[in-house]
Write a structure and sequence with these properties.
Elements lengths: L9 E6 L18 H25 L7 E6 L8 H13 L7 H4 L23 E6 L6 H9 L4 E7 L3 H6 L6 H17 L4 E8 L5 H17 L3 E8 L7 H4 L1 H6 L4 H17 L2 E5 L2 E4 L5 H7 L4 E4 L4 E4 L2 E4 L4 H7 L5 E4 L2 H12 L9 H4 L3 H9 L11 H4 L2 H12 L2
Parallel strand pairs: 1-2, 1-9, 2-3, 3-4, 4-5, 5-6
Antiparallel strand pairs: 6-8, 7-8, 10-11, 11-12
Helix pairs in contact: 1-2, 1-12, 7-10, 13-17, 15-17
Length: 411
C-alpha cells in the first residue's frame, strides 16, 4: 500500500549538457558534439523516465513539494522543460477520464498565484525551479518554462565584471545578464507569479575598486528588478574534476587577497540588509518568505530523489549515487548506480552538515546527546545559542565546528 512506503518530498533532475565548461565548475556535465546530441538527448530522456517510474513504484511520491532542475545548463535546450513536464505528468499524474483537471493543460494567467500544483494534478508542487544561463534566456525559453509550471528561475550570474567572467571562462558578459533580466521583466509584467534567484561567486575580485564596482552593480540590479527575491553567494572553490583544480598555473591566476574577500562579504552584508534581504542560510539571502524551499528540504535532512547522471538521492538510511557518465546512465542507469546503507554515525554527520547551515534551527536533541563536549564549548564562545542553534557568528566558523563535532562522533 502507498501509505506503507517512505514519502519523498523533493525531486532533483540533473541536466548534464552544457555549451562549455567553466574553469571552476566541478559539477558533472559534458559539451556534446552537435552531430550526436539528438541521440544522446533522446536516450537521456528515456532513462530519466525509467528511473522516475522505478522510484514512483518504490516510494510514495504523492507528497512531492518541490522540483529543481540543475546542471549542466537546463536552458541549453529550450524544449527540455516541456519534455520533462510530459515525463513527470505521465509518471506522477496518470490521466484519468474522470479527472477534469488533467483533461486540459492549465492556462498561464496573470493573476495566478506562485504555485505549480495546477500543472501536476493530484500532487501539490509549491515550488518548481530551473537553473538557467543568461546567454540562453529567450522569450521562448521563459514561455516554455512557465507553461510547464516553473515558478522560480535560478540564474548563474556569478559576477557583473566582464574581466572576472573572462578570467574563469564564463561565456557571458554583464550586458548578457541585463538583457536576460529585461526579458524576465517583460514576462513578469504579464505573469507576476514567478520569481528569479541569482548566483554570485566571491573571491573573483582582485582589488577594492573591483569590489566597489561589483557592489554598485548588485545594488542597481536588486533595485531595478524587484522580482529578484533570492541571492546565493558562494566562495570560489577548486573542486576536484574542475579545470582550475587540474591546472596549477590557472589556480595561481585565481589567487586572491583575503582582505578583498572579507571586504566583499562586509559590503554584501550591508547591501543585503539595507535592501531587506535576510541571510537565512550560510550562503543564501532572500526577501522575507522567499527562501528556496527545495534547498530547505536538503538542509532539514528530508527525503529526496535525484534523477539523471551524477544525481544523488537520500531516502531513509539509503544513499544512492548515479554514475557520472551520460552514456553509462543511458545504457543501464540502474546497475551503474551505487547504493549505500548509511550508518547511524554517517546519518548524524550528514544531519549536522545540513542542519548547521541554517541559523535559528535547533539541533535535534538526540544528536546533541552524542556531542555534549562540542555543544558546551560552542555555546560558551557564542557560536551556538542556548537552544542548540547556530548563531550569526557561528555561521562564519561553520567548518571548524563541523570538524570538531565529527571528531567527537567518531570516538
Amino acid at each position: 500500500m502507498e501509505d506503507n512506503k517512505l514519502s519523498v518530498h523533493h525531486l532533483y533532475v540533473h541536466f548534464p549538457f552544457c555549451r562549455s565548461k567553466c574553469a571552476y565548475c566541478g559539477f558533472y556535465s559534458i559539451v556534446p558534439h552537435s552531430e550526436c546530441f539528438d541521440s544522446l538527448y533522446s536516450g537521456y530522456l528515456s532513462s530519466l523516465e525509467a528511473e522516475l517510474s522505478y522510484y514512483a513504484s518504490e516510494y510514495n511520491l504523492s507528497h512531492l513539494e518541490t522540483i529543481f532542475i540543475g546542471g549542466g545548463s537546463p536552458s541549453f535546450k529550450s524544449s527540455f522543460i516541456a519534455d520533462l513536464h510530459t515525463i513527470l505528468s505521465r509518471t506522477l499524474c496518470p490521466y484519468k477520464p474522470s479527472d477534469e483537471k488533467a483533461e486540459k493543460k492549465p492556462d498561464i494567467k496573470p493573476d495566478k498565484k506562485s504555485s505549480a500544483d495546477d500543472f501536476f494534478p493530484n500532487i501539490s508542487i509549491s515550488e518548481f525551479t530551473t537553473e538557467c544561463n543568461p546567454t540562453q534566456i529567450t522569450d521562448e525559453f521563459i514561455r516554455t518554462a512557465l507553461a510547464a509550471g516553473v515558478n522560480r528561475f535560478s540564474m548563474g550570474v556569478q559576477s557583473f565584471s566582464d574581466d572576472a567572467l573572462r578570467r574563469f571562462g564564463r561565456h557571458q558578459t554583464a550586458d548578457d545578464v541585463f538583457r536576460a533580466l529585461d526579458l524576465f521583466a517583460a514576462a513578469h509584467s504579464l505573469h507576476p507569479h514567478f520569481t528569479v534567484s541569482i548566483d554570485l561567486i566571491n573571491h573573483l575580485m582582485l582589488t577594492q575598486s573591483d569590489v566597489d564596482n561589483e557592489m554598485a552593480a548588485l545594488c542597481n540590479v536588486i533595485t531595478r528588478y524587484d522580482f529578484i527575491r533570492h541571492i546565493s553567494v558562494y566562495d570560489l572553490t577548486f573542486d576536484e574534476g574542475s579545470r582550475i583544480y587540474k591546472d596549477k598555473s590557472l589556480r595561481r591566476s585565481f589567487s586572491h587577497s583575503e582582505d578583498v574577500s572579507t571586504l566583499y562579504w562586509q559590503r554584501l552584508s550591508e547591501i543585503m540588509s539595507a535592501a531587506g534581504f535576510v541571510r537565512y542560510e550560510v550562503s543564501n539571502w532572500c526577501r522575507q518568505g522567499f527562501e528556496c524551499q527545495h534547498n530547505l528540504g536538503y538542509w532539514h535532512y528530508r527525503n529526496y530523489i535525484g534523477l539523471g547522471p551524477a544525481a544523488h538521492s537520500t531516502v531513509g538510511d539509503l544513499r544512492i549515487e548515479n554514475i557520472r557518465d551520460v552514456s553509462s546512465y543511458i545504457s543501464d542507469w540502474q546497475s551503474s548506480r551505487t547504493v549505500t546503507r548509511l550508518t547511524k554515525q554517517e546519518q548524524a554527520e550528514e544531519y549536522l552538515l545540513m542542519n548547521l547551515r541554517l541559523p535559528n534551527n535547533p539541533i535535534n536533541e538526540d544528536i546533541v546527546k552524542l556531542i555534549p563536549n562540542s555543544i558546551k564549548h560552542y555555546q560558551e564562545i557564542g557560536w551556538l545559542n542556548s537552544d542548540y542553534a547556530i548563531t550569526d557568528l557561528g555561521l562564519d566558523y561553520l567548518n571548524t565546528m563541523l570538524v570538531d563535532m565529527f571528531d567527537e562522533l567518531s570516538r
